[in-house]
Specification:
Elements lengths: L3 H22 L1 H8 L5 H24 L3 H23 L7 H20 L6
Helix pairs in contact: 1-2, 1-3, 1-5, 3-4, 4-5
């Protein structure tokens, strides 16, 4: 991995694979942290979709991060951020989701800064 953007793609990918597979593997421990869920099948489906995006980002980190990976990284992070914030404000999901929202915002900022070439991590 030669570029910081590849590292970003790898880290985001790993995060999505781990957090995506967690409810599939152990829904009970997932709900202990995130609260009860009515539609467990939907939680697992979203988890598998997150893991799929994560695998793609990890692959792109190895093979070279192109425009498609940048779009996937930013749009996926924005999707999670928007849902986290909206449903916390609506008091439908617990405040713990704001921790994820903060991470998603940081990922978006890194993609925008590093992909544009305006900022370089040390």
């Amino acid at each position: 991995m030669k570029k910081p953007i590849a590292f970003l793609s790898l880290v985001q990918g790993l995060y999505y694979v781990i957090t995506g597979l967690w409810p599939v593997i152990d829904i009970d421990s997932f709900m202990m942290l995130t609260g009860p869920k009515d539609d467990r099948w939907l939680v697992k489906m979203v988890g598998l979709l997150a893991a799929s995006a994560g695998l793609t980002l990890m692959y792109q980190a190895r093979e070279g991060v192109g425009a498609a990976a940048r779009i996937l990284g930013i749009s996926t992070a924005f999707s999670f951020l928007a849902i986290d914030v909206y449903y916390v404000i609506a008091r439908i999901i617990p405040v713990i989701y704001l921790a994820d929202a903060a991470l998603q915002l940081a990922l978006i900022a890194c993609w925008l800064l590093w992909a544009s070439g305006r900022a370089r991590p040390r």
